[in-house]
Amino acid sequence: xxxxxxxxxxxxxxxxxxxxxxxxxxxxxxxxxxxxxxxxxxxxxxxxxxxxxxxxxxxxxxxxxxxxxxxxxxxxxxxxxxxxxxxxxxxxxxxxxxxxxxxxxxxxxxxxxxxxxxxxxxxxxxxxxxxxxxxxxxxxxxxxxxxxxxxxxxxxxxxxxxxxxxxxxxxxxxxxxxxxxxxxxxxxxxxxxxxxxxxxxxxxxxxxxxxxxxxxxx
Length: 218
Ligand code: DX5
Ligand code: ZN
Prior knowledge:
Radius of gyration: 16 Å
Number of strands: 8
CATH topology: TIM Barrel
Oligomer: single chain
Bound molecules: D-xylitol-5-phosphate, zinc ion
CATH architecture: Alpha-Beta Barrel
Number of helices: 8
Helix content: 25-40%
Strand order of the largest sheet: 1-8-7-6-5-4-3-2
Largest sheet: 8 strands, parallel
């Protein structure tokens, strides 16, 4: 069974709660919250205050994807705001093991994201300490980009590594995922599927969510 994680980056921010309620009512399990600082990526989005406001009215798993430099500075704030899972980028952490421990010390699940060019090897020695790996299937920064095909063997390599170590680590994919290509990433080993534009820009969100699930289980 896959889990669907709509990315709020493609939602209408002026009606954020209304938009989030649509994906919650459509049965999506995770809310993927893209946090950007204008340094690690060339875009700026939102911070813990917005997460805290949404938390009051939403029961989905809050999955914070921190695309920010030096994420340690903000882990406590995102945990206190109600995030269930905090994902940091390998490329943004000088002491990744310490950062992971910092996330877990706040009783929050920990994930590590890898940019398309970053090898799986860079997280091999922390795999047993985390709950999820996020394989970026676009370069982070914007919604609506095209899926990078060469990430399929990367997902397969990660799946093999996780299985060889007998670990229970989720594989999340993020960027350019649509009902048309979801089967490919699931077959390669992904089980948490982020989709921004494909969900929020669709005419009928609940039909699109159904189509994602149907195609994922082909
Ligand atoms: C990109 C973000 C993604 C983005 C995905 O930097 O991390 O979560 O919103 O959007 P789509 O699904 O439109 O590629
Ligand atoms: Zn994301």
